[in-house]
C-alpha cells in the first residue's frame, strides 16, 4: 500500500500542517467519534465543533479553518446552504460533506454549493483522514459509491444533473493533451497518477486542469468531469474491470 503523500500547493510544494478542522455535526455521538479520529492524527487539529449550519458559517468566518467537515441534515441551516455561504465568502476554505446521503439528490447540490469532497459516514477513519489531506492538497475526495451514482446519472441524462450556470452551447476546441487529461479524469486518476502517466510534474498537471476548468467555465475537477461527460467528450468508467 502506498503511503499518503503530504498535501501540496499549486506549485507542488508540501503544505505544512497542522491543518485546522471545523466539524459541523448535530449528532453528539458522531461528534465524539470524529473527535477521537481527528485528534489521533498528528497533522490535524480541531478548532471547533458546532451543531448546525448557521453556527458553521459563523465559525468558519471567525476561525478560517483549512477544512470544514459538514453534515447535510442539520437544524437551523442545512449543510448545503452553509457550504454555499462559506465557500462564496472564502474560497480558500475546503468543505467536505460527511453524510449518510449517498444519492445524487444530495450530492449534486452539495457539489454545486462548493464542496470539494463528499464522504459517507460509514467510511473508515483512514479514508476520512486521507480524504482531508487529499482535499487540502487540491484533489477532490468522493466516496466511490457516490462517484459511481453521480457519473451514472450524468451518463443516463438524469435531469437532476442538468446544469444551468455552467452550461455551454457546444464543447470548446481542445488539443490532444487536453483530451488526455480529460480521459484520465474519467478513469479516476488522481494528480499523482496523472503526472506519472504523462511524465510531468504534478504542478504542471494541476495547471492543465485549471486551464480546462476555465475553458469549460466550471469550478473544480469534479464539475469539469461532469461537464465533459455531458458534452460527450469522455465516458466515465462506472465500474471496475
Automatic annotation (TrEMBL):
UniProt domain Response regulatory: residue ranges: 20-136
What highest taxon heads this organism's lineage? Bacteria
For molecular function, the Gene Ontology terms on record are: DNA binding
Q: Which UniProt keywords apply?
A: DNA-binding, Phosphoprotein, Transcription, Transcription regulation
For the keyword Phosphoprotein, the answer is yes
Q: 4-aspartylphosphate occurs at which residues? A: 71
Which SUPFAM superfamilies does the entry mention?
C-terminal effector domain of the bipartite response regulators (SSF46894), CheY-like (SSF52172)
**Is the Transcription regulation keyword given for this protein?**
yes
Q: Which SMART domains match?
A: HTH_LUXR (SM00421), REC (SM00448)
What's the protein called, per UniProt? DNA-binding response regulator
Record the organism.
Answer: Mobilicoccus caccae
Lineage summary = Bacteria, Bacillati, Actinomycetota, Actinomycetes, Micrococcales
